[in-house]
Design brief:
Blueprint: H1 25-28, H2 68-72, H3 84-110, H4 113-131, H5 144-161, H6 163-174, H7 180-183, H8 186-217, H9 231-248, H10 251-260, H11 266-271, H12 273-287, H13 293-321, H14 328-351, E1 356-357, E2 364-365
Antiparallel strand pairs: 1-2
Helix pairs in contact: 3-5, 3-6, 4-5, 4-8, 5-9, 6-8, 8-9, 10-13, 12-13
Length: about 375
């Protein structure tokens, strides 16, 4: 039996089988849609079906111009664009230039070899004189004096003389991997690194090495032992102490670079400062030419101070990175006040209380 389209149970009573199941104007119940209806050709006042306008295309995303700092932080000026072979070529070029600078400094130091050797020999002569021994050093082999005085000594002096140029080559090698605002630190980096290297060598020469030498040469003086120092052994000890302390003085620069590369932070360095002090004391024990506590303290105390100087430099870098400012004015005022107070105390002690200053501890005696 055919299905009745007017069956109330039929879910689609308006389907017309002659129109393939589609709604027709006559069956839809809309008087405005019928061609021969009373409202044919007229528009309804309120159409039951509202035409939906096509959606407008989305607006293009706004282009935000980066500020100057963001432009500086971008991948510009060849940053990280070198290939592996390019890095090797750049490394070879920087090594050649550094060695060329060292060669020029070596040639310049040869003309002052006599003065340089007298300066190197001065700590040994002073220590032997204090102990009552002759001030001369011994030459054991025929070529010993030539290799030490005319080859190794000018190289050592040339290394300190050419240190700014060598450090500049190191900076030029790593600069392409830094942002533009970080490359502006070139001159402070070179001056600080070279200054700390030379300062460390001067501290070792004028303070640490002299104290240690007197202790070492005087150990057997009361037991019939007369020192006979070979220039090779003496110069090896001199180089180890001078270069060791000079390299340790680069600790603030190392800490600054670790912070710059986001490897360390001031909070981390302060939290683990006790481990750092332990490592510093161990390094000082290795560098110190004597086993006594006094000379160990002479070496370790400046190193610990330099560690906290590096932490302070790390804090300044992080503060600048976060847009903060350090209260330099207050620090300078407090520092100036402390210096003035110390000066007034020294003047009162020397002028009113009869004290006078000496060149050794406690530096102020009556």
């Amino acid at each position: 039996m055919p299905e009745n389209i007017n069956d109330p149970k039929d879910p689609n009573p308006d389907l017309d089988p002659e129109h393939d199941g589609r709604l027709t104007p006559e069956t839809s119940g809309d008087p405005y849609a019928a061609e021969d209806g009373p409202y044919a050709g007229e528009l309804p006042a309120e159409s039951p079906v509202t035409a939906v306008a096509p959606a407008a295309p989305p607006a293009p995303p706004a282009v935000i111009e980066p500020n100057a700092e963001e432009k500086d932080d971008g991948d510009d000026d060849g940053m990280l664009r070198m290939s592996f072979m390019g890095h090797l070529e750049e490394l070879r070029l920087r090594l050649i230039r550094a060695l060329a600078g060292l060669g020029v400094a070596f040639c310049a130091c040869i003309f002052f070899t006599d003065y340089l050797w007298n300066a190197v020999r001065a700590p040994a002569a002073s220590a032997l004189r204090q102990l009552g021994y002759p001030e001369d050093l011994a030459q054991i082999t025929p070529t010993e004096a030539f290799s030490i005085i005319w080859v190794r000594l000018p190289i050592l002096a040339g290394l300190f003389l050419a240190s700014p140029w060598i450090i500049y080559q190191v900076w030029s090698f790593i600069a392409p991997g830094l942002y533009k605002k970080e490359r502006r630190l070139a001159m402070p980096f070179i001056f600080c690194t070279a200054g700390l290297f030379i300062t460390g060598g001067a501290f070792a020469y004028f303070v640490a090495f002299r104290f240690g030498l007197v202790f070492l040469l005087g150990i057997g003086s009361t037991m019939g032992v007369k020192p006979m120092i070979s220039i090779t052994e003496y110069f090896d000890l001199f180089v180890n102490v001078i270069l060791g302390v000079a390299l340790v003085f680069e600790l603030p620069v190392l800490i600054f670079f670790l912070t710059l590369l986001r490897v360390a932070s001031p909070r981390f360095l302060l939290t683990h400062s006790r481990y750092a002090i332990l490592l510093i004391v161990m390094a000082a024990a290795i560098i110190t030419p004597t086993p006594d506590v006094v000379n160990l303290t002479i070496f370790a105390a400046p190193m610990v101070l330099l560690y906290f100087v590096g932490v302070f430099a790390s804090y300044l870098l992080v503060l600048n990175r976060e847009g903060g400012t350090f209260p330099w004015r207050k620090v300078f005022l407090w520092t100036g006040g402390i210096i003035v107070a110390i000066a007034v105390f020294l003047w009162f002690a020397t002028a009113r209380m009869g004290y006078h200053m000496v060149g050794k501890w406690p530096f102020l005696i009556k």
